[in-house]
## 1
Amino acid sequence: MVGVGLIGTGFMGKCHAIAWNAVGTVFPDVAKPRLVHLGEVNEDLAKRRAGEFGFARASGDWRAVVDDPDVDIVSLTTPNQFHPEMAIAILEAGKHLWCEKPMAPSFAEAQAMAAAAQKSGKVAALGYNYIQNPAIRHIGALLDQKIIGEVNHLRVEMDEVSWPTRRRCSSGSTRRRPVTARSTISPCIRCRWSPCCSAASPA
């Protein structure tokens, strides 16, 4: 059985923990992974989260998770600025890696992570929601075959369901907006939170 380590237990860390716990239910033909070691910013929080999520061990130092010989794969769900150092350490330790998005704060750091993954020979995956989407794979094939030339910019528009004509945002404001089936939506101009807000406007 695969031994799992988890570093970071914020919102996405909880999502990863739930996902690991659900492997046996969703994929009954796959051996349920062992939740081995959880790392957090301090030992008290790590122990509390380990108890909640079912991890056998807990540490207030992420390096202890990386160094644990019983850990085969690490879910890395810390704030983005910590991804490069931690991801490279995980790969250099011979562990597989599941890193949450975005990959890194800079392109140079992302390149260093990619180089470490290639050198390690381990599986390194990023938590991009649409990575297996057929449209994304088709775009990749077009790029590989150099059918559309060199690409230096990509804009993706998401299909949206019809919006109600009036919604209320967290700021309490309301504003009528046209119902559209396809548009690029920017966040609310007041609450800056969600494109579902009525004050959000088509770009």
## 2
Amino acid sequence: MKDILIIKIGALGDLSFALPAAQALKTALPCNITWVVAKTYEPFLKNHRYINSLITVNDKKLYSKNKFTRAWEVLKLIFQLRKRFDQVIIAHRDPIYYHVFKLFSRGSTVQIVRDKNQSEPQFVYIPPLQIQESLAIKKLITAAVKFFNPNINDVTWQWDYSHIPRVALTLPNHFVVLHLGGGSNAKTEFKLKCWPHWEALVLRLLTETQLNLVFIGSPAEEPTYKIIEEKIRARVPDTLTRCHNLMKNLSIAAMVDVIRRGDLFVGVDSGPLHIADSMNKKVCGLYGPTSAISWGLLSKDSSIFQNKIACSPCYKDNAFFPPCDNQHRCMEKLEVSPIFTKITETI
């Protein structure tokens, strides 16, 4: 029985990409799995049947701009680990993770990297913007398994959300889930992902269809919905009964359950989008500053909408969105009509 440590702290979309890793390892090897995860996203992994234990880290402190705050959080994490593992799997590309966590391995330490000049045999090189992130992590897990069984050239890769319970929410029997986006996590703000035409799409859905709309997201994203709500109240107030705003106090578990219960998902490149895609829901994904290759959609029922211009994607898988010098054209020029048509044809 091998003891394996997985380092994948967050954010939510990154965790959804990596979620099949636990089942893949358990299927290939007799092992116990410990997973290091951000405290913010612990509910996403808690009680997962293929994960034996979770170790949490305060992501806000770990990614603080204050180096002493960061160092103290790392020390607390080291104290929580307090043992060595047969293998450490690092699903982050920053070299600092390797230098810290290899200390806890009595066997192999395997890490995904973006630099092909890194010479350690444990490094799995994935060129930036060349492969969907979940498939990149699948390559990492396959490499990790091969340390124990060289004859294994592939691993099973499927998502399991059975650990997320059904949540008591009053919802219509049929509805479309919308995630407006534009929030942030402990490391990065996502304002450039915002699509400026949500209002036009929502008004068309309310006036030209009878669909129920359920809005999910974080409280930081709710002001965008409130602007849309005011326009609806001014123009077609009777349709507000078909709008359900869950953005104020929606837990991660509730969000996953809402996505699971919805008939279709529409949203920008984000954690909720990738959760919906991994559930094989019918999905419309809106892309601009991020790569539709690296963070694309895998399900045959998912559709990508993208305004392809020379500067897109500007995000290069480095946790940094550069200032936009092109009037946000990648999202500004993404038209409503094709998305509306896809929704109405799909439902």
## 3
Amino acid sequence: MQNQEKITIELPASLLSVFSKKHISPSRKVKELTILELYREGEISSGKAADLLGMDRFEFIRYASRLGIPFLDITNDELDSDIKNVKTAGCK
């Protein structure tokens, strides 16, 4: 088990009521959103994020993708460049 620390954050009561309506644990949701954001920013890997959330890596990648967080974060220019490099190398 990983070392863990507890933190305290203040949230408006209106947000807490949203959690209670959906029967969601606020601490679990804040943890999940923090991990997803760190992954989106490239601060942690998909494997690390999956481990922290208790998921299989591919399950996490699918979950993040459904939330609009891409597994591959590549621009069109980077993709075009990669395609040109592959063609130049003689690959089809």
